[in-house]
Amino acid sequence: MSDFTSNFWSIYVAGVTVIGIVACLLLLVFTAKKKVESTSDNTTGHVWDGDLTEMNNPMPRWWMWLFVITIVFGLAYLFAFPGLGAYSGKLNWTQLGEYDAEVVKANQQLQPLYARFESMPVEEVAKDPAAMAIGDRLFMNNCAQCHGSDARGSKGFPNLSDADWLHGGAPEQIYKTIHDGRVGVMAPMVAAVGGAEDVRNLAHYVLSLSGSPNDSIKAALGKEKFAVCAACHGMDGKGNQALGAPNLTDDIWLHGYGEDAIVAMINKGKQNEMPAQAQKLTNDQIKVLTAYVWGLSNKPAAAH
């Protein structure tokens, strides 16, 4: 990959661009000076289809100057804007800068729309139909790709419409999750648990915590091994929202259900990430989105 991180491609792009413009200029000069010998009737002597004669009239001057202006414009553009490899241009224009400026402008225009919600508690915002309509659009544009349009999630992506929360379902906790993002890590535990049979026994004990179908004999053998899991999930298996450790007693399985899924989790571990939205959304937008998400699992309280 070193050839993609060196200066070669920058020089290559700049060289091709400049050579292309210079070649066009030389072509214009060459064709302007070249004279075609003509006959006394001002033709080149070329005749097609019997009566189509090629005349030797010069190119219209305005046409030639239009071509010259195009070349001058190209050189001026490359001087002012990026186009010559790594050269950033005299105006230091960038696509990212243009995008950021447009986002700032759009947020300023939308500010009056969110102003009425600034002093309202999240629970009250969740009762406002206008706020929920805005929250629905924000959710569809920024969250539905992972959590689904109905917010019920899928394998690896939490269901936001129930009362099961990895990091807590209070408004301030939801706001922090959206604003800062979350990173959940389940380290591979096979070395601490023991051999393959010990892992299977532990998987059955984990299944027994939620009343799921399990082998009671294997579950009894695996109970002792659960001590390596208790540091995060607690001795009772009810999880720890401060760590984002799931509750293993509620029969809700984020990464798959059954013995094989649990064995794979113990053997390989898992890392999940909820990206921070603070770079994309304003604080007011995150507040409205928080109210919308909170309202999904608190429908009676959120009903207008």
Question: Which labels suit this protein?
Answer:
Cytochrome Bc1 Complex, Chain D, domain 2; two-stranded antiparallel sheet; 304 residues; 15 helices; mainly alpha
Termini gap:
58 Å
CATH superfamily of the largest domain: Cytochrome c-like domain
The CATH topology of the largest domain is given as: Cytochrome Bc1 Complex, Chain D, domain 2
Oligomerization state of this entry?
single chain
Question: What's the overall average pLDDT, rounded?
Answer: 90
Q: Round the Cα radius of gyration to an integer and report it.
A: 34 Å
Give the percentage of residues in beta strands.
5-15%
The total tally of domains equals 3
Helices and strands: which structural class?
mainly alpha
Number of strands: 4
Which class of the largest domain in CATH terms?
Answer: Mainly Alpha
Contiguous uncertain segments of 5+ residues: none
What spatial order of strands do you see in the largest sheet? 1-2
Count of alpha and pi helical runs: 15
String of helices and strands: HHEEHHHHHHEHHHHHEHH
Helix content: 40-55%
InterPro entries: CcoP_N, CcoP_N_sf, Cyt_c-like_dom, Cyt_c-like_dom_sf, Cyt_C_IC, Cyt_c_oxidase_cbb3_su3, Cytochrome_c_Oxidase_Subunit
GO molecular function: electron transfer activity; heme binding; iron ion binding; oxidoreductase activity
Binding site for heme c 2: 186, 229, 232-233
Domain Cytochrome c: 130-210, 217-297
Question: Could you explain the architecture of this structure?
Answer:
- The chain crosses the membrane at residues 12-32, 62-81.
- The chain has 304 residues and is mostly helical.
- It has 3 domains: 2-80; 102-181 and 275-302, Cytochrome Bc1 Complex, Chain D, domain 2 (Orthogonal Bundle), CATH 1.10.760; 185-274, Cytochrome c-like domain (Cytochrome Bc1 Complex, Chain D, domain 2), CATH 1.10.760.
- It is built from 15 helices and 4 strands.
- It has helices spanning 2-5, 8-33, 61-80, 95-115, 122-125, 129-142, 144-147, 171-180, 190-193, 196-209, 216-222, 227-233, 259-268, 283-296, 299-302, and strands at 43-48, 52-55, 182-186, 270-274.
- A two-stranded antiparallel ribbon has the order 1-2. Strands 3-4 form a two-stranded antiparallel ribbon.
- A hairpin with a 3-residue loop joins strand 1 and strand 2 (52-55).
- It is elongated.
- It starts with a helix and ends with a helix.
- The mean pLDDT is 90.
